[in-house]
């Protein structure tokens, strides 16, 4: 009897492990990606006409294919003749076997392992059976019977995609359960560790933990080891951009109001920051109330995926690629101006939303949208780090906002910065400096990758692959826009048009950002006067809008004219920011906070000019 209990216990243990193993394999993102990739290849192979290609058949190949055909349990077709091997048939058979195997792996756990009722398993058996027989039969019919092409395309399309849709619908609950299976196990271990004495760490120790295999973040004064949570984070690898640093502001601005009312999961907390300085207050209900009202008005799942943004993105990409082709092949003044204009439009309309994860609720699509900046030959990983963490988290804060580091000593933008003699001319030479913004942005990539901010001393994660990709991007940039035109035309023409293209790109990009924060109406702060001001209030006080009623400026600037709304809700598609303007204006008025908007872009630009002139001639405003 004792042996029977032990045997039953071991069987239960093996069953549980098998269940978890199959579940892990089925829902692993690598498997899912490979599954989709093979499906796409399979569909391309079946739907695209192919020219028959014959290669000599070695004797050993004839033996192998003869054995394979005899062992293959499903209907098959000839892949070789006496002398030749038909390459198209081999490719068809390879993909047929691969897809069947992956489909089987996808469905077998549902049939034999997952704890579901008999009807649920029967549905999966029917699906698997239909797929295993209909797929090879369809290929044979396409190859031998020569049914009408349109009929075959429709048949194969319906068989494959109906099957995949049903599979995904039936397995969605199991996929979600897996995501937290490992997390729950680790949570129990973390909870045991948390019961021990809380340790304190200095910033110099925290910044060392900034890789995917060792990732710490700070929220308020607490340190969280999120290494095991990275692959399950709904925002993807965005955490890595702030690895080893303070992510408090992004925790509050990117997460739902219900979630930010709570502290982050305590099972990940490993300690506290020694001598932590918190400059902003997050306890005031001001920002929380705005977020709750906006979430009630527009559900979070509608913040992205705006069809207007998708149409704009498509047109900007097509326009940019067409202008790049025009520039490379003709290198005229018009081509240089158009290339610079459309490169900037791709940046502000696609890249900016993508790097804020505002382009789409699909994190992969938003991630790709962010990489449009690499397509225009800059770098998205540096932008996310310096912009999301080094600007949005601490807007117009002298010691923290990255914008002050990158412009000083050439430009004086804060009253507490040292004033040099040449600053009294900065309102004049600023227009020359803006010409070179794109040059400094592109050429400063590798310097920025080693950037350490003033406080806290944080460096986000940059992989060797990203460095390598940036080397390739810069080589392509120089080759396509400078070297090739120099060879095809002349170096004088190439360098002249290259300068024009970068100048137009710089102006179209830089001026939109300059008039949002560096004006007489936008506030500035520093470590001495911050005094625990509410973070949400600072986003309004230190920003300014312009031309809110202008359809043209809204779309030309990529919604940057709604700067206040964007800073409060960075995950909001810029084409929908106007929908929340009234709510924020009312809340700001009730709290007696200055909400400022310029009537036009020209008014904002004049205010920017006046600020530069005053800061260049006076120590204080």
From TrEMBL:
<dbReference type="GO" id="GO:0020037">
    <property type="term" value="F:heme binding"/>
</dbReference>
<feature type="transmembrane region" description="Helical">
    <location>
        <begin position="30"/>
        <end position="48"/>
    </location>
</feature>
<dbReference type="InterPro" id="IPR005804">
    <property type="entry name" value="FA_desaturase_dom"/>
</dbReference>
<feature type="transmembrane region" description="Helical">
    <location>
        <begin position="55"/>
        <end position="74"/>
    </location>
</feature>
<dbReference type="InterPro" id="IPR001199">
    <property type="entry name" value="Cyt_B5-like_heme/steroid-bd"/>
</dbReference>
<feature type="transmembrane region" description="Helical">
    <location>
        <begin position="154"/>
        <end position="172"/>
    </location>
</feature>
<feature type="transmembrane region" description="Helical">
    <location>
        <begin position="467"/>
        <end position="487"/>
    </location>
</feature>
<keyword id="KW-1133">Transmembrane helix</keyword>
<keyword id="KW-0472">Membrane</keyword>
<feature type="transmembrane region" description="Helical">
    <location>
        <begin position="118"/>
        <end position="142"/>
    </location>
</feature>
<feature type="transmembrane region" description="Helical">
    <location>
        <begin position="307"/>
        <end position="327"/>
    </location>
</feature>
<dbReference type="InterPro" id="IPR018506">
    <property type="entry name" value="Cyt_B5_heme-BS"/>
</dbReference>
<feature type="transmembrane region" description="Helical">
    <location>
        <begin position="428"/>
        <end position="446"/>
    </location>
</feature>
<dbReference type="Pfam" id="PF00173">
    <property type="entry name" value="Cyt-b5"/>
</dbReference>
<keyword id="KW-0812">Transmembrane</keyword>
<dbReference type="Pfam" id="PF00487">
    <property type="entry name" value="FA_desaturase"/>
</dbReference>
<dbReference type="GO" id="GO:0006636">
    <property type="term" value="P:unsaturated fatty acid biosynthetic process"/>
</dbReference>
<protein>
    <recommendedName>
        <fullName>Cytochrome b5 heme-binding domain-containing protein</fullName>
    </recommendedName>
</protein>
<feature type="domain" description="Cytochrome b5 heme-binding">
    <location>
        <begin position="198"/>
        <end position="274"/>
    </location>
</feature>
<feature type="transmembrane region" description="Helical">
    <location>
        <begin position="364"/>
        <end position="383"/>
    </location>
</feature>
<dbReference type="GO" id="GO:0042759">
    <property type="term" value="P:long-chain fatty acid biosynthetic process"/>
</dbReference>
<dbReference type="GO" id="GO:0016717">
    <property type="term" value="F:oxidoreductase activity, acting on paired donors, with oxidation of a pair of donors resulting in the reduction of molecular oxygen to two molecules of water"/>
</dbReference>
<dbReference type="GO" id="GO:0016020">
    <property type="term" value="C:membrane"/>
</dbReference>
<dbReference type="InterPro" id="IPR012171">
    <property type="entry name" value="Fatty_acid_desaturase"/>
</dbReference>
